[in-house]
Write a sequence for this structure.
């Protein structure tokens, strides 16, 4: 039976924890609103970009001139997994869900005899994957010091990926991130970005002759790296919103659990206190009777 | 007068979306004005002003730095790399852009990238001068 002082201390400590989780929940809620707005504002650009690209690719006849970012290298031996996670923990299953998806993907590829390389964006994913794939991780970007996610951060990551692609270090790149569906639901997603995936044939309807200024391939050559950056940028923004959403839910749960615990502990505390008072009274009364 | 749908989007936000009469674009191969019913063209953009005429004789100027314009039967979409909206368009904001490019130029060791940055700076200076009128 814990003493009264022990119980008091325990209640005080749970109360302190509850204050922290409550504060974290509110901070996450405020950040979520901003992150969500940013993710939504970036959506039109990414959508238009893939529309333009599919327009263009739908009309293009594949040839030796076609940029490799679109056509691929012709093999799929080496896979690069770009795993985007958060910099901080305490956000429920957010990081582990993305890491799990990436891990499953990596093990499957390896069992097929393919080479897997991993590019980590975000500290948490790096921490998780480092344990299982110490030799596969080839690069790691930390965005810890970044306060507001900008296009330039995505650009920096895309440049690193492109450099490796130009050097022939991989054939296929897949991006792992968490798609923000709602505050309580974030979906870990794998998206192939190299060679560019062309969703649907948007340009099939227009047979009209299209003019290109400058030439078709020159445009594609600038458009494709840009598309890569845009896709990464979108993944980062979706991830940021998902992270805050996951943290908000996790912290809400933690606050509620702490509340339950405080209630239980207070009950035990009061019962013990009453038992002690009763015991003391009995002692006094029986002492008086004995006289 | 006939109108067509125009959209100007930057990575972070949508800057303009609506029906317009005409749009002047700074294409890499020269400036071009897009009117309703324009033939489908896809063009790369250089640094310069986009002039949007949404009402008769009323133009709005926006600065874009690189990007693409896609003209289709359904309208015109401009995907700008960076863009400054009319209200943000002041000599000071252009100076900031110039500074930004200068920093990029100094950070890179690739000669082609440095040349490209130099060209952008020149175009931005030109834009700044044009703004004074």
């Amino acid at each position: 039976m814990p003493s009264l002082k022990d119980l008091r201390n325990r209640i005080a400590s749970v109360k302190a924890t509850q204050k922290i989780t409550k504060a974290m929940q509110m901070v996450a809620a405020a950040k979520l609103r901003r992150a969500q707005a940013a993710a939504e504002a970036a959506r039109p650009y990414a959508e238009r970009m893939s529309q333009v690209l599919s327009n263009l690719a739908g009309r293009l006849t594949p040839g030796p001139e076609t940029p490799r970012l679109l056509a691929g290298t012709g093999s799929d031996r080496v896979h690069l997994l770009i795993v985007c996670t958060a910099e901080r923990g305490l956000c429920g299953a957010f990081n582990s869900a993305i890491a799990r998806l990436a891990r499953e993907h990596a093990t499957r590829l390896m069992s097929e005899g393919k080479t897997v390389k991993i590019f980590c964006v975000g500290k948490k994913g790096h921490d998780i994957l480092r344990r299982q794939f110490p030799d596969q991780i080839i690069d790691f970007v930390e965005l810890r010091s970044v306060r507001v996610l900008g296009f330039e951060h995505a650009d920096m990551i895309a440049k690193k990926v492109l450099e490796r692609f130009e050097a022939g270090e991989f054939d296929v790149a897949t991006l792992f991130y968490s798609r923000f569906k709602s505050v309580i639901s974030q979906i870990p997603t794998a998206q192939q970005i190299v060679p560019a995936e062309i969703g649907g044939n948007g340009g099939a309807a227009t047979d009209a002759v299209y003019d290109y200024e400058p030439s078709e391939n020159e445009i594609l050559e600038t458009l494709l790296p840009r598309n890569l950056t845009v896709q990464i940028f979108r993944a980062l923004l979706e991830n940021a919103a998902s992270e805050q959403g996951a943290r908000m839910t996790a912290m809400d749960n933690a606050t509620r659990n702490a509340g339950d615990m405080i209630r239980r502990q207070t009950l035990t505390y009061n019962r013990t206190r009453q038992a002690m008072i009763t015991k003391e009274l009995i002692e006094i009364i029986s002492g008086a009777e004995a006289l | 007068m006939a109108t067509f749908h125009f959209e100007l989007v930057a990575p972070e936000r949508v800057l303009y979306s609506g029906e317009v009469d005409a749009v002047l674009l700074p294409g890499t191969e020269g400036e071009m004005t897009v009117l309703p019913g324009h033939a489908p063209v896809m063009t790369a953009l250089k640094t310069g002003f986009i002039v949007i005429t949404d009402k008769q004789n009323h133009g709005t100027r926006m600065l874009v730095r690189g990007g693409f314009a896609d003209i289709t039967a359904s309208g015109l979409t401009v995907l700008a790399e960076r863009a400054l909206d009319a209200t943000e368009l002041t000599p000071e904001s252009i100076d900031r852009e110039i500074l930004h490019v200068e920093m990029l130029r100094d950070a890179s060791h690739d000669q082609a990238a440095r040349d490209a940055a130099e060209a952008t700076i020149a175009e931005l200076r030109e834009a700044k001068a044009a703004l004074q009128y």
About this structure: The mean pLDDT of chain B is 83. Residues 93 and 133 of chain B are 16 Å apart (CA to CA). Chain B has two domains: 4-86, 89-131. The longest helix of chain B spans residues 111-131.
